[in-house]
């Protein structure tokens, strides 16, 4: 029996009890009514009316209870019907649940079996993959072993080659020592000959002095002075001959040794070099563009120069203008600004300011990208952002025509190779060489040597003290105290001193040639002077009557020595003295 049936039964029982109570009360009231006093009694009449009302109320309550019982019975019947339907639905649901559970169990068994099969297949595939991976790793290890063996063989071959070169060098030194011994013996023989010659000259001079005193009546002091002058001339001749022989002997081995040293230092580094000047040329689509650049009464060109800080030179050169500025970054910004203005066609002061801002941002991005590329190429990862910005500015900075940023990259590579050969700390030395010219980014803004400026910058932005010392000592403004400073100097000299790396400005080049010709032309007996091969050779034409062969050798030596003392130049300068005798006759 359900809970609802129990509730209905309880309600029916309560209503039955209420009806029975009402009936009992009615029967008791009737009994009282039968034994009541005379109807004439008003109290009896009132009590009778009250009882009749109570009886009517009881009947009404009984009727309502009966109707309620009927409704309750109907609800109970409906509830029993609903309970029966619910029981039927519950039974059907239980049957459906059993069926679904059976299906689920069957499906689970199927899925489990499929999962077992898939797991076995995956395990087999993993075993095959692991087997193939192991085979590949074994092959890689074998290849690595072979490469390492080949590298060991190459190193052994290099060591054998170095040992052979060392042996050859020892043999050359031994041969040189033998040559020097022979030369010393020859010099000793010559000294003996010279001593004998001096004795003979002394005897002849004594006879000459006595003869001069007898014939000319000269005093001893006058004769001594004449003798000193003659000996001085003769000594100069002998010294010139001796110097010429020694120089000829030394020149035979000096060039080979110098070439070997230079090639050994820079043979593994090759960098492109960009030669620039303080003037940039911008080609125009036509000459009519020059008038638009100048503007009405020169308004545009004045605005351009005041905004960019670059001098704009417009001359008779067809379809081209010149931009001049000592600051290469500012000159590049000006060039890009003018190029964008020419392509756009709208040239006026306001447009010049807008385009200048765009060009300046573009150049800054190019500088930043160039600095990052240089750092990646050198292999430096941790560096202060301000130093990166300063390095980017060196993209447009040149020194004697050599791009400074490329020079820093090349110097770092050379220093790294030297450090690796010497088994030193390669990263520190490469960092010192790469940052040694960082001060050139501020030489237009801060007074002082770029080495000192660069050292202050490196110290300011937290660089290692060895790096700072290498920067400040790479031009000997501070004596070098560490191996990093010495290798930075050496790599800087290798990068800047190799042939083709640098060039001088036209003005300095012309002045140097003029000074070379002045030095040679100022000597006695010189007729003509020609500076040839871009100042690498100077030919001096002398008067044959005033200068003999020995005097020509002395003159060449004096000119070369004066050039070495007064001038600064790359490489070497050859001095050639030409003495030509001409005899002319006329046939009549």
TrEMBL record:
Its EC number is 3.1.-.-. This is Ribonuclease Y. It is a single-pass membrane protein. It comes from Micromonospora reichwaldensis. Residues 48-162, 187-221 form a coiled coil. PROSITE patterns: HD, KH_TYPE_1. Pfam families: HD, KH_1, RNase_Y_N. It is an enzyme of class 3 (hydrolase).
